[in-house]
Amino acid sequence: MQNHLLKLKEQVLAAIAEAREGKSLRALEIEYLGRKGRLTAILRGLSDVSEQEKKIVGQLANQIKNDLSAAFRQAEEVFSGQAGKNPSFDVTLPGQAGARGHFHPLTIVLEKLEKFFISLGFLVLDGPELESDYYNFTALNIPPFHPARDMQDTFYVQPIAQQAVGQLVMRTHTSPMQVRAMQKYGAPLRVVVPGRVFRFEATDTRHDTTFYQLEGLMLDRDISLANLTAFMKLMLSAVMGQELNIRVRPGYFPFVEPGLEVDMSCVLCGGQGCPSCKQTGWLEMIGAGLVHPEVIKAGGLDPEIYSGFAFGIGLDRLAMMKFGINDIRLLRGAHLPFLEQF
Ligand code: FA5
C-alpha cells in the first residue's frame, strides 16, 4: 500500500511538471485529489486494513495529499504569473554582487599581441615546454659544447626512455618552435608562438626563472631587416596603445645573422629618461634578427630561396611596462591585492 501511494505521488508530480496550462492542472487536481479522486479513494479504502497499518498508511497518505496540494498551488502560481511575487520577498532589496574575475596582466598583453598578429595573417602555435635538446639548441645552430649554450642555462630532465628522445630540457626560449614550424608547414610561413619558458638564473626585479615569451617567424622570398623593424615598431605600438619609437643594436644569437636587440622608447617618460629606463629613454624588449641559413636548412628549406626574420619578446617585461609593475616576481606571486588592480 505504501509503495502504491509513493508511486501515485511520483505520477502526479510528473503530470504537474508536464501541464502546460491552468485548465489541465485543475483537471489533474480533481482526478487525484477531488472528492471522487484516486487518492481520496485510497484514503477511503483504509477502513479495510488493520488498525496498525491504518495509522501508518493514513499518515503517509495525508502527507502525500498535502505535498501534492502544495505542488498544485505552486504550479498554479506559475501559470497565473504570481510566481516570485510572494510579499515576504522584497525584490527591491539590493542583491549580493558576485565576485567577478578578470584577466591576468600577462593574458591581457598576450591577447593584444595575438590579435595583432592574427590580423596580419599569422598562425598562433603552441609548443612543448619540455623540449628536446636538439630543437632547443642544436637545430638553432648551438651544437653541444658550444659556448653560446651558457647564455641560457636551464633545467635538464632525465628522460625515461633515453634512447628515444635524447636529452630533454625545460625550454629556455620559444625559438625551438621555429624549426618545428618550418618542418610542419614549410614556406612561406608566418607564425607566432606564445609560451612559458624556463631558465636557471638568479631572480631579481627584472629576471625570473619562469617567464613568458612570444616568438615570431616570417619566412618568404626577399624578407629583409626593413620588414623586421617595421613589424617591431607596429607590434609594440599596438600593444602599448600609443605610437612608439624603436631602435636596434647589434645582438648575438647563433640562430640569426645579423642579430639585433630591439629597444622601445620608454613609455613612462616618453624617451626623456627616468629611473625605469635607467635615464636612457630606451628599454630593451626583444631579441631578433634574420633567420640563420643553418636554421632554415634544419627546417628542411632552402636558404638560397627563402629568407626570413625571427624575434622573441618577453611578455613579462612588456606587461611590466604597460601596467607600471616594478617587480617581475609579482606576476607569479598569486597575491590577490596585487592582481585585483588590473
Ligand atoms: C631569446 O630568448 C631569443 N630566443 C630571442 C630571439 C628569438 C632572438 C628569435 C633572435 C631571434 P633573450 O634571452 O634575450 O633571447 O630573451 C628574449 C626576451 O625574453 C628578453 O628581451 C626579455 O624580455 C625576456 N627575458 C629574458 N630573460 C628573462 C628572465 N630571466 N626573466 C624575464 N624575462 C626574461
Automatic annotation (TrEMBL):
Signal peptide boundaries: none
GO cellular component: cytoplasm
Keywords: Aminoacyl-tRNA synthetase, ATP-binding, Cytoplasm, Ligase, Magnesium, Metal-binding, Nucleotide-binding, Protein biosynthesis
Enzyme class: ligase
GO molecular function (one): ATP binding
Enzyme Commission no: 6.1.1.20
Cofactor annotation remark: Binds 2 magnesium ions per tetramer.
Cofactors demanded by this protein: Mg(2+)
Record localization: Cytoplasm
Aminoacyl-transfer RNA synthetases class-II family profile domain mapped to chain residues: 109-337
InterPro entries linked to this entry: aa-tRNA-synth_II, aa-tRNA-synth_II/BPL/LPL, Phe-tRNA-synth_IIc_asu, Phe-tRNA_ligase_II_N, Phe_tRNA_ligase_alpha1_bac, Phenylalanyl-tRNA_Synthase, tRNA-bd_arm
Gene3D superfamilies reported for this sequence: Bira Bifunctional Protein, Domain 2
Reactions catalysed: tRNA(Phe) + L-phenylalanine + ATP = L-phenylalanyl-tRNA(Phe) + AMP + diphosphate + H(+)
Binding site for Mg(2+): E257
Pfam families: Phe_tRNA-synt_N, tRNA-synt_2d
Assembly: Tetramer of two alpha and two beta subunits.
NCBIfam families: pheS
Similarity comment text for this entry: Belongs to the class-II aminoacyl-tRNA synthetase family. Phe-tRNA synthetase alpha subunit type 1 subfamily.
Protein name (record): Phenylalanine--tRNA ligase alpha subunit
